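Chapter review: from sequence to fold.
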Amino acid sequence: MNIGIDIDGVLTNIQNFNRRHAPQFFKRKYNLEVVDGDSLDIRDIFKCRNKQFIAYWRKYLLKYVTAEPPRKGAREFTRKLRKDGHVIFIISRRVFSCRKNPMGILMRKLVRRWLRRNGIRHHEVVFCETSDDDSKRVACINKQVDIMLEDEIVNINSIASVTNVICFDTSYNRGCEGENIHRVKNFEEAYKLIKRFKGISIK
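The token string follows.
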């Protein structure tokens, strides 16, 4: 089968990264406290302005994309998928990665370097051509993805209209349910679920 895997929120735990770094940053710099700790977007967590959101990621983005480790079991998961004969697509809407300018070139290079350094097996990295909410669904269609591992609700719902989605359980996607959506808590559960799928094809 063709397996699609998201980076931010699936291969990495971006929520935990923000929980480690954001509270101190926003308290010290803007005297802001956590308002909604279950959200994914920093702007929702602290009810901060866009300028403050940009300041946070200007400080921490490089650290996140280069030094944040993958979730436990990610490397073993992709190795087992390849051993089983699946084709693995890393499908990402990582910030800046769709741009054709030097920043986009750098981000795509950093993503590939991170995957290689952390032993994440794959056949192809697919950077969505736009940052539109529908871009991952289009990528799944183009690559004939049978199962996509995803964490963001907007992407899950969009992709589930064309193929099966393994929803990586987080506080910000609880309650996201529907046809073709299957929830797991870790890569071990995801692998067992994939093993049970047979004869799945894109609609």
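Two observations follow directly from the output. Residues 50-67 form the longest helix (18 residues). Strands lie at 2-5, 87-92, 124-127, 147-150, 164-168, 181-184.
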